[in-house]
């Protein structure tokens, strides 16, 4: 019927037109799937026989998408994040972190970044994080007379880290769409995520050292511990916490020994830190920490340190449950999300904060966001299936690869497309609609030409591109005119802070994000450090 | 609480009682089944639970569970959540009730997963059914979430150009959007009907040890829910026809109630 070039052009223009008239994204792509098929196949084949024919790919594609086990992690992560927002965990974590950093120049800004990283490692969704940080840290920073731009930028840039540090909902979708291992994506994004976070922290430290008036120190609280004393107390807190961890590990290892489950068997992976041979090490570590608590630090100081730092325990437990489940080989991503929700719920129960109302409210919120996100997936799945059936991605890949452009030139053009799209569109739409076209092109490019200083193996290119995409989306959360982080902060900031102020505060942080992105492009092997 | 009732009115109390009674019966039967499982040889496990033919006890349990769920969804749909838009008309109510069912199911998936992780990791007796059961339920959650999102008008749209249009152009755009959704639904049903019908009649199973009839149930459910979504879109168009158009900004994504709630949580104990 119509040749594939014209068809691609029609679909592209159709997409712009339908989005312009305000049609929901998922349904716009679903309808274009029908258009694609209608242009490719003659009408009598398509409509000749009720209940059959090429149109059946639509229902099949949707069905395949819905029965994907990993997709279940999406509502579960949303549910967990919703519960987390309503518990006081974040507030206690902030006060605990703040105690240790209050005498450092720019302390609250640094605490905000660290807290954002910890929250990012608990859940993989932004929005709630920016709101929480905006409510907790912004008033403090403004009261102390911190530079407004610095305060705003720190909160929003750090609050957006949620999707860069695993678990990340962006990477989950990327993995689903491109059939890349999500665990590998998470592992690969660890270092780039922390690199970005440390860029933020370094920036805060350097700026406030160069110009101390940006971040005045609070007046010292009388009777508060200082300097060396504080470090000792922190050491005491850490050691006491480590005693707990090693103690639990010991009980666990003994439990396995009693049940005989950790016997060394052929062809069976050993249980991490649960084998009989691990027990002496665990006991040794336990003794060392006990020694530190009682001899080096002293009991009293430890108790004081524990009191000051105990707000950090709940978040660490949640991270341990979620990331520990994934990396300890215990469960997959989906169960980890479920366990995370249970962990937050139990902690909330212990803290006497959970009520039926909070759970129910979180469920309403979960279903709403799930419907919004998943139905974009449904439409995009139908479009991708139809477009693949008519040979679209191969055609585009051939065209781009055959155009004889330099490899990095093509990659840079893609980055540009991502950044521009990110200004106007949600990340879900970008990953679902653009990735099926872009990734085949990237995979066709010679792997040894990707990057300037080093190169990744061909099998890791898909993982690398996922992390690069995720970094692009970091920028999109902040970029004007629709950066969602700005609107989240605006909703909780004092009225005299305008949107323009907020976007101005973002500029240095966007520059840092672009710097991190260029590190990823120049030196791709950064993702394989932990792989 | 009757003044907050959305549609049940004076039946609210009865529905609530019904929910509690049937939930209690379901729990009692469940305990009975678990007890039988522990103490007797001839017992029903999850394998029998999805094959109720010829097993009256299983049939009664499933029926009670279903009725309890229906009552619970009806009852919970009667109260509007703080972030929800007002349901308006019959289709909205259907969507909200089905949405409530999906919400309960999200919590149910979490529990199923917890059970599976505990029994696999602590007792080293992995279940055969937990993963497939979550998958089965999750399909419904995903489908009904879309219907609910349609009723709440929270599907992702891009408003940049739409908001600049004059009133008549907006109305035309809305009509075109809905017509295209109807067109897609028509094409989907046209292409998928035979397949769904065959699988439903065969009650095609998943082909695993527990072997739930996921394709047999989900394929037809998919078509039905998409038709419902399409009807909801038409119903939205009619309901919104004379409403004043509101300007959209990304700030709409933020709901004030949620922020108020978070703020309250933060202020407690301070």
Write the layout of secondary structure elements.
The complex is a heterodimer of chains A (531) and B (270).
Chain A: H1 4-20, H2 25-40, H3 43-47, H4 56-66, H5 73-86, H6 89-101, H7 107-122, H8 128-144, H9 148-159, H10 169-178, H11 182-210, H12 227-259, H13 279-297, H14 299-309, H15 313-327, H16 333-350, H17 356-389, H18 392-402, H19 407-424, H20 427-433, H21 435-444, H22 461-478, H23 484-490, H24 499-522
Helix pairs in contact in A: 1-2, 2-17, 4-17, 5-16, 5-17, 6-7, 7-8, 7-9, 7-11, 7-15, 8-9, 9-24, 10-20, 10-22, 11-22, 11-24, 12-13, 12-14, 13-14, 15-16, 17-20, 18-21, 19-22, 22-24
Chain B: H1 12-39, H2 46-49, H3 56-76, H4 90-122, H5 130-151, H6 167-202, H7 214-240, H8 256-267
Main pleated-sheet profile of chain A: none
Average pLDDT taken over every residue of chain B:
81
Radius of gyration computed on alpha carbons of chain A? 25 Å
Model regions low in confidence, pLDDT < 50 over at least 5 residues of chain A = none
Distance between the termini of chain B: 32 Å
Order of helices and strands of chain B: HHHHHHHH
Structural class of chain B: mainly alpha
Annotation, overall tally of beta strands of chain A = 0
Major sheet characteristics of chain B: none
Assembly status: heterodimer
Structural class of chain A: mainly alpha
Number of helices of chain B: 8
- Residue fraction in strands of chain B: under 5%
**Gross geometry of chain B:** globular
Q: Give the helix level of chain A as a range of percent.
A: over 70%
């Amino acid at each position: 019927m119509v040749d594939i070039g014209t068809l691609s052009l029609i679909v592209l223009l159709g997409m712009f037109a339908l989005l312009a008239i305000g049609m929901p994204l998922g349904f716009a792509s679903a309808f274009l799937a029908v258009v694609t098929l209608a242009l490719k196949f003659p009408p009598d084949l398509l409509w000749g026989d009720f209940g059959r024919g090429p149109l059946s790919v639509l229902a099949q594609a949707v069905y395949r998408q819905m029965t994907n086990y990993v997709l279940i992690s999406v509502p579960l992560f949303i549910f967990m994040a919703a519960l987390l927002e309503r518990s006081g965990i974040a507030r206690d974590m902030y006060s605990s972190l703040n105690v240790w950093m209050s005498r450092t120049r720019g302390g609250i800004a640094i605490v905000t970044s660290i807290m954002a990283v910890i929250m990012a490692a608990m859940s993989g969704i932004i929005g709630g994080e920016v709101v929480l940080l905006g409510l907790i840290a912004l008033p403090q920073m403004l009261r102390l007379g911190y530079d407004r731009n610095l305060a705003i930028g720190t909160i929003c840039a750090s609050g957006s880290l949620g999707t860069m540090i695993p678990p990340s909902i962006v990477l989950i979708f990327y993995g689903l769409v491109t059939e890349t291992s999500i665990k590998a994506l998470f592992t690969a994004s660890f270092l780039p995520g922390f690199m970005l976070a440390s860029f933020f922290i370094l920036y805060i430290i350097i700026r406030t050292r160069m110009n101390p008036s940006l971040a005045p120190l609070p007046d010292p609280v009388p009777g508060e511990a200082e300097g060396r004393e504080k470090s000792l107390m922190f050491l005491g807190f850490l050691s006491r916490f480590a005693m707990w961890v090693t103690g639990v590990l010991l009980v666990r290892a003994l439990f396995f020994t009693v049940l005989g489950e950790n016997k060394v068997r052929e062809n069976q992976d050993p249980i991490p830190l649960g084998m009989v041979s691990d027990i002496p090490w665990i006991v040794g570590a336990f003794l060392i920490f006990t020694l530190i608590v009682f001899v080096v630090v002293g009991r009293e100081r430890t108790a004081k340190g524990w009191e000051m730092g105990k707000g950090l325990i709940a978040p660490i437990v949640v991270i341990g449950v979620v990331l520990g489940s994934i990396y300890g080989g215990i469960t997959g991503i989906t169960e980890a999300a479920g366990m995370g929700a249970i962990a937050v719920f139990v902690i909330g129960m212990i803290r006497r904060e959970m009520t039926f109302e909070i759970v129910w409210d979180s469920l309403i919120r979960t279903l709403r966001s799930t419907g919004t996100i998943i139905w974009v997936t449904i439409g995009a799945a139908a479009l991708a299936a139809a477009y693949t059936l008519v040979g679209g991605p191969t055609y585009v890949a051939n065209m781009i690869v055959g155009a004889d452009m330099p490899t990095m030139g093509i990659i840079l053009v893609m980055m540009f497309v991502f950044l521009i799209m990110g200004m106007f569109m949600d990340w879900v739409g970008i990953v679902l609609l653009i990735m099926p076209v872009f990734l085949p092109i990237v995979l066709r490019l010679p792997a040894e030409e990707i990057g300037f200083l080093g190169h990744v193996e061909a099998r890791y290119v898909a993982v690398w591109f996922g992390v690069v995409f995720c970094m692009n989306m970091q920028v999109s959360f902040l970029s004007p005119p629709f950066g969602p982080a700005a609107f989240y902060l605006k909703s909780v900031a004092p009225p005299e802070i305008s949107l323009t102020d907020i976007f101005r505060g973002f500029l240095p942080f966007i520059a840092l994000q672009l710097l991190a992105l260029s590190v990823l492009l120049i030196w791709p092997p950064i993702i394989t450090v932990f792989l | 609480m009757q003044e907050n009732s959305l549609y049940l009115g004076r039946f609210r109390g009865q529905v609530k009682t019904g929910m509690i009674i049937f939930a209690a019966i379901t729990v009692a039967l469940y305990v009975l089944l678990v007890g039988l499982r522990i103490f007797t040889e001839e017992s029903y496990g999850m394998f029998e639970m999805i094959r109720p033919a010829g097993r009256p006890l299983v049939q009664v349990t499933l029926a009670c569970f279903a009725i309890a769920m229906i009552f619970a969804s009806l009852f919970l749909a009667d109260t509007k959540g703080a972030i929800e838009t007002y349901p308006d008309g019959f289709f909205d109510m259907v969507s909200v009730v089905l949405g409530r069912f999906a919400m309960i199911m999200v919590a149910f998936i979490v529990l199923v997963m917890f059970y599976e992780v505990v029994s696999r990791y602590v007792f080293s007796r992995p279940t055969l059914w937990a993963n497939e059961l979550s998958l089965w339920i999750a399909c419904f959650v995903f489908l009904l979430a879309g219907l609910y999102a349609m009723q709440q008008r929270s599907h992702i749209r891009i408003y940049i150009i739409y908001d600049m249009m004059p009133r008549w152009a907006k109305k035309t755009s809305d009509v075109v959007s809905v017509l295209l959704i109807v067109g897609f639904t028509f094409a989907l049903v046209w292409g998928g009907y035979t397949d769904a019908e065959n699988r439903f009649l065969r009650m095609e199973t998943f082909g695993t040890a527990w072997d739930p009839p996921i394709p047999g149930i989900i394929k037809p459910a998919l078509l039905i829910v998409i038709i419902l979504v399409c009807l909801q879109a038409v119903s939205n168009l009619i309901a919104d026809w004379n409403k004043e158009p509101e300007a959209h900004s990304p700030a709409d994504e933020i709901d004030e109630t949620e922020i108020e709630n978070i703020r309250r949580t933060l202020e407690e104990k301070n």
